[in-house]
């Protein structure tokens, strides 16, 4: 959602929304709701969380730009490899950020 919506900032601004603020609000509310169902949730208040998402979004924009280039598929692939590496690295960093334990306990009935 975050990566796709940032590509459509023009649309969101026409309806009076700041894309990044809107997405961050939705992510926070979704995370808050998840805390009522799951024993762990993301720490979206960790300063690295949205910074890493922003880095992924920047890589995504560059990948789209490379795809639009008028060059060979091989050249495009070579240009994309470091971007894919950066994106995967940042996604792994997101995955390994500390989580927050909720008070929800799974029980068997």
What does this structure look like?
It is a single chain. The chain is mostly helical and 109 residues long. It contains five helices and two strands. Strands 1-2 form a two-stranded antiparallel sheet. The radius of gyration is 18 Å and the shape is flat.
**How are the strands of the biggest sheet laid out side by side?**
1-2
Query: How is the biggest beta sheet arranged?
Result: 2 strands, antiparallel
| Average pLDDT taken over every residue | 89
- Note poorly predicted spans: none
Helical content band = 55-70%
Order of helices and strands: HHHEHHE
Globally, the shape reads flat
How many DSSP-defined strands? 2
Distance between the termini: 35 Å
Number of domains: 1
The number of helical runs is 5
Give the helix/strand class: mainly alpha
Beta-strand proportion: 5-15%
Oligomer: single chain
Question: Nearest-angstrom radius of gyration?
Answer: 18 Å
Please give a handful of descriptors for the protein shown.
109 residues; mainly alpha; two-stranded antiparallel sheet; 5 helices; flat
What would a concise description of this structure say?
The protein has helices spanning 2-7, 9-14, 19-34, 47-68, 73-95; strands at residues 40-42, 99-101.
